[in-house]
Design a protein that fits this description.
The chain is an alpha+beta fold. Helices cover 60% and strands 10% of the residues. The chain has one domain. Helix 2 crosses helix 4, helix 4 packs antiparallel against helix 5 and helix 6 runs antiparallel to helix 8. The protein is elongated.
Length: 220
């Protein structure tokens, strides 16, 4: 859905007026995909708050900590650390670990596509491809077809539900994760049955997401 390199060979006229370059359907698709990322990031913030035990403010999130974390990359990195702590203190199946890693990796990837769709400065009318100007002066090209934008929206919606399950898993295992604060040599124990149910639901949602048609590529 996005790539760098040379401009597509079959490209046509480039325009900067988005209403000239995009249909109402495409504009709606960009808006939907852009907005769909917001609740996903909000749940990611909740995962962080749960894992760190920062459920103190009115909305359940310590805003100071989240502000200091900055962008999504730092948030994802912290969530990885929180789940590493869970793996170190409880017996978590490798399949579960892979499942969570996939959710976080795919969130980062979809965030990149979403940001590119929002940040395009020119639009190729012929190919429905947007041109994004990178900070290093190079261009990236993002596909803005209805199929691509719908696929992005659907993936972000699934990922939000996967993050919901991750949030609940940390909530159910908070005491176990922080056992090291009370015992210098904690003994690993199995995660509880409720957590296993959450892992199963997470895996089921992720499996449905993986069944979606692949995102189309930008033409060469």
């Amino acid at each position: 859905m996005r790539r760098g390199g040379e401009r597509p060979k079959s490209s046509g006229t480039l325009v900067e007026d988005i209403k000239q370059g995009l249909t109402e359907e495409q504009l709606a698709g960009i808006g939907a995909a852009s907005l769909a990322f917001n609740p996903a990031e909000q749940v990611l913030d909740s995962v962080i708050a749960t894992g760190l035990g920062l459920m103190s403010s009115a909305n359940g999130i310590d805003e100071f900590v989240l502000i200091k974390l900055g962008g999504i990359d730092n948030k994802v990195a912290l969530v990885r650390k929180l789940f590493d702590n869970l793996y170190n203190t409880t017996n978590v199946d490798l399949d579960m670990q892979v499942c969570i890693r996939n959710t976080l990796n795919d969130l980062s990837e979809m965030r990149t596509y979403r940001n590119s769709a929002v940040h395009v400065t020119q639009i190729d009318i012929t190919l429905s491809v947007g041109v994004e100007k990178n900070r290093n002066g190079s261009n990236s090209y993002v596909l803005l077809s209805k199929v691509a934008l719908d696929g992005l929206y659907n993936r972000l919606t699934f990922i939000r539900h996967e993050l919901d399950m991750m949030d609940y898993i940390l909530f159910m295992n908070y005491d176990e994760m922080h056992k090291w604060r009370r015992a210098p040599d904690p003994t690993k124990s199995g995660i509880n049955s409720t957590s296993k149910d959450c892992f199963a639901k997470l895996a089921a949602v992720q499996a449905k997401r993986k069944e979606l048609p692949p995102l189309p590529n930008v033409p060469p």
